[in-house]
Each structure stands twice: as C-alpha cells, then as structure tokens.
Structure of isochorismate synthase:
Amino acid sequence: MQHKWYNATEIEVGSNSKQIFYMETIEVSRLSALAFFAAGESKYKGKRNYWQNREKTFTLVGLGHAYTIENNASDARFDLVEHEWKKLTSQIIEEDQHLQPILFGGFTFDPQNEVSAEWTNFPQSYFTVATHQLVIRNDKAYVTINYITDEENSATTFEALRKERDELIHAAQVKEVKTYAKPTMTSYMEPYKQEYLNSINKVTSLIKANEAQKVVIARSLALQFKETITSPQILSHVVHEQPESYLFGLEHGDLLFYGASPERLVKVDNGRAYSSCVAGSIKRGPTAEADEELGRTLLSDLKNLGEHHYVVEMITDTFKKNCSKVKVPHGPKLLKIRDIQHLYTPVEGQLNEDATILQLVKHLHPTPALGGVPREQAMEIIRTYEPMNRGLYAAPIGWLDADGNGEFAVAIRSAALVQDKAYLYAGGGIVEDSEAQSEYEETLVKFRPMLRALGGQLHE
Ligand SMILES: C=C(O[C@H]1C=CC=C(C(=O)O)[C@@H]1O)C(=O)O
Ligand SMILES: [Mg+2]
C-alpha cells in the first residue's frame, strides 16, 4: 500500500486574503531526482530547482511555484524572508512531519551592485515553495503537492494536480531516465582579463596600504554554444562529474544558475549549527604521491594559511554570538575535490534560543572566503574593481523548513546559463602577498568543473 498524507488548512496570505493551503505527500519508490526535474521540462521550465547536499543524504527537487517569497531589499532582505516564511508556516497545522513545505532559494551576493547583464530582473532574494516537491531522505522518496488557492473550484484543480503528479512520477521512472550529450561550444571568451590582472595588483597595494586585509576578487568566462542547452542536460553532467560537492540548480525564467560547491555556509539540524571555513587552494597532483606533496605544501603555505585564517576568525566570532559550546579544531585539514584541494576547518555550536538559520545566513554572508576583511571595505573594493555582477555566485543558496532546519551552501564553482550562452564565475582570496599570475591560474582550476560539464576545452 502506498503511504499518503493529506492536509488542508485555511490561512491568511498577505493582508487579509483568506486562502486554503492544500498539501498531500505520497511515498514513492526511489527514483532519479534528475529525471523528475527533467519531467517538468514542458510545463515547469523556468520554475524548477535542484539541490543535493555533499553527503547525498538529502535531495530536493521542485517543479512549479506554489508560493514565492522575493524582495529587492538590501540589508533587510534576510529578515523580510524570515518574517514572511514564519507567517506562512505558523498557520499550517502540522499533522505529520511528511507534510512539510520546504522553502528553497538564494540571496544575491551584493544588492548594491548595479551592473545588470545576465542578472537583469533577478530579485535580491528569491525563494519558492514548489508545487511538486520531491524529497529523497534516508533512502526514501516522497513527492508533495503544495497548492495555495482561494479558488471556488479548488477541489477540481487539486484533483488535476494529483493526475499531473502521477504523470511526472511515471515519466521520471520510465521516460526521462536518459543520458545527455555535451553541448558544442563555438566561442570561449575571458572578458576583462587584463582588468582582472590589474585589479589583483591594485588590491594587493591597497592591502599593503592597510585599506583592507583581504579581498576576494572574481572574474567570469563567457561561452557561446551552437544550440540552446537545457537545464536537465547541463545538470546531468554536473551531477555525475562532481559527486563530492553540493549540487544545485535554480531556474528563473530563461536563466539557470547551477553549480557544484564544496563549501557549506550553514546547516541547522535540530538546534545544532554547522559551518565550514573553506579558503586556501592548490591543484591536485598527477599521482597520489605528487598530490600528497601538494597537500603538504598547502598546509604549510603562509599566504594560503593567511587567506584561511581570516575566514576561521570571522565564522568563529559569528558562531560565538549566536551559539553556545562552539567547537573549532586547532588547525585546518585538507578538503580534496576533483580538481582542487582546499584548507578546511569545520565550526559547530548549539544554536541560541533566539537564533535561526536565516539569522546566521545574514550574519555570515559574505564570509571572508567570498568577500573580505573588513567586510564593508572589501565590498567597496569589489564594487570598484570587479566589472561584473556576481548575481548568485558566491552567495547563499539553500533551503529551510518550518521547524527551523535547513542548509545553505556558498554558491561557488557555479555558472549562469541563458539559452545558448553560459557565464562561469571564479575568484580567489587576495592578501598582501598575492600574485596576479598565480591568482589567475587558481581561477582556471576553479572554472574546470563547470567548463568540463559544458564540454569545454580546459584552457591552461
Ligand atoms: C571564491 C572562490 O573560492 C573561495 C573558496 C575556496 C578557496 C578560495 C581561495 O583559495 O581563494 C576562495 O576563497 C571561488 O571558487 O570562486
Ligand atoms: Mg586562494
């Protein structure tokens, strides 16, 4: 017998409008999350999302938008999202933990950046509850319909959504399980390459003059393809090629933002909070021995230890303000992923009564692994010397539920896909003794995962 949970609650949305929040969850036999995402291609393209944690113990796919929380506020955006989410979820009578709407989305890197380009029209906070929500947790798969309406004939519409759900599951189990070809690239551009190299020299001199201690400077690649690339096509390659990272995809109209990040911003699980300091990098070696040697070099390299130290200091401070019993190991370990090794220090603590995951996101973002030290000076330097808009690159992306649990990654090793064009982003932490050429080479290594997924040449 198929397990099924159902709930309908009258709620108030916005000011005074009475609506009904219908929810139904069924347990399904385990299916490919990617195939479920692909099954939404004709009906829900532009309104889908994909998420997997690093351990692959939690997968979330959303098709369609049952509820959207977005705003263009600057500093207030975190509080606004939190307030609206709390208002919505506090009204739902939770009959069972299987009836849990999940909010998925992200906050842009810097609401004060005014360069538009590929990020035109993208809200500074963009979160949605999916109409069809797939959750795979502890080897069990659940599909939830979320439907909020004030329609008279809502029962008929809900019945139609049930049919649609069954078709989506069927398609995911049977039709959409396929392999995708790599796209054909027709041009590879490094916009503002010289400006980027100059900016590293400029920023190191600003640091020497004590204007800041550390600033993360990024750049982009602009790629053109022969044909339009679909979201399932690119995600399938990323998912298969970068299994050791957070995997994410978020559609907004014509744009798909996707990536494979090694870096957790924050996770909250039952009142316990976790973050990770990931900063300081070196390439992988061609042999196990060479790789180990590079790892040892990284662990004792003063420039990289410097980059790392600022991050540990800031995340630890933020945790001490929001948590008790904060635990931080003494020195960094190595975090090895396919193309690169990083210095890595995990931080954890017991969340204070009044602290929440979104409050932690607000205080942590941007950590010095993405912004710099001091934060405001670094942000001003980034606005002045980076001729692009990061959009969601290096920004918090993730999910939360009504109980306060959730997880956000830092959206690095990422790209924006707009039909037949892709924009890849990568940066690095600039400190006093950074050198332009080696920072440039570090970004080439960091571009690799997204470039490989797109079938690109690894220009080196
Ligand atoms: C900003 C990026 O990486 C950050 C995370 C890990 C290591 C970093 C570094 O060594 O510079 C960066 O701080 C990026 O990948 O675009
Ligand atoms: Mg670096």
About this structure: Residues 280 and 301 are 9 Å apart (CA to CA). The chain has a mean pLDDT of 95. The two ends are 56 Å apart (CA to CA).
